[in-house]
Design brief:
The protein is α/β, with parallel strands linked by helices. The protein is 36% helix and 19% strand. The protein binds zinc ion.
Length: 354
Amino acid sequence: MTNEEVDVRRFDNSESSPRIGRIPTPTGFPGLGDINSYLIFPEDDSGELILIDTGVASEEAWQALTQGLEKLDCRVADIGKIILTHGHTDHYGQAHRIQQTSGCELWAHENLWLTVERMLPPPERVALEKEFYAYWGVDRELVDAALARRAAVAKSFKPVEPSRLLQDGDVLDIPGFSLEVVHTPGHCPDEVIYWQPEGRVIFSGDHLLPNITPVCLLQIPRSRDEARARSLVEYQQSLAKVAPYPARVTYPSHGPPIDDHRELMASYHLSTDRRLLKISRILQKEEWMSPMDIGKALFPKAWKEQMVPVMSEVLGHCDVLEAGGHAASEDRDGVIHYRYISTPPPTDTRRLFG
Ligand SMILES: [Zn+2]
């Protein structure tokens, strides 16, 4: 897949709908580049402008958004509604400033609070997070460093209270432009895609991305007894849910439009299969391994600096191995360990996507 340039533009009828625009704004996150906000232009002069996702809370992102709107002949004050694909700071961070200027509403999935809490956890939640990281064999210094990085990002994050909470299957009543909410947990618990049936368009958030396989972030349970959400297993179920939509084009939050979402999904399955096989081979060499030990073997360069995504990958794939009967887990002296049982077969994508 190529890294086409993504710029401010209004799409036309041949691409999707002249009511859709796109404004990329810089995230400032290393390796991530810009995030795309999408606009839904009003049907007529009396209608309101709708913004899907906001960009981060930074002066650079604000400049990019205001200048982008200007190029498309509108202003922040015209925004009547922000709708979110999910509550990560690059999608939600700028909502507060936009609302201060425009007085707009914000609509988001009902699980938004879970993602907000993950970013701005109360002290008892942080204590529980530390317990879980210890249970996964992560060194204390690595946990403290990751929590400090998160706190630095959270400093500029002012969550806006949603005025409407969305659920799977809701159809948003935008005049002449219906949008169906499809809940697609996996990347995070409040992730949704929006389906526009007339133009056959998917706004995919971070559920489908053209140049990178989306990370299924580790969900830390809210109590000691609660079962951990299996993010990668959920993500695969969400892929299967979105696959049948007959999309002509998919607009992702990062990168250029996607022509064939099913082909992209098949490529995700290939990379997941490859990683499952790799972890399976790592496990095969040892008797029992903690998730952190697997992470060190799997990502010998990144495990220190990127502990959270590394642990997300390890635990997500271990969940899939365990669910398929290819690995087993056991608590050994207060740390969970995994053991090899059998080698996972490749996914039959023809069966998955028909
Ligand atoms: Zn995200």
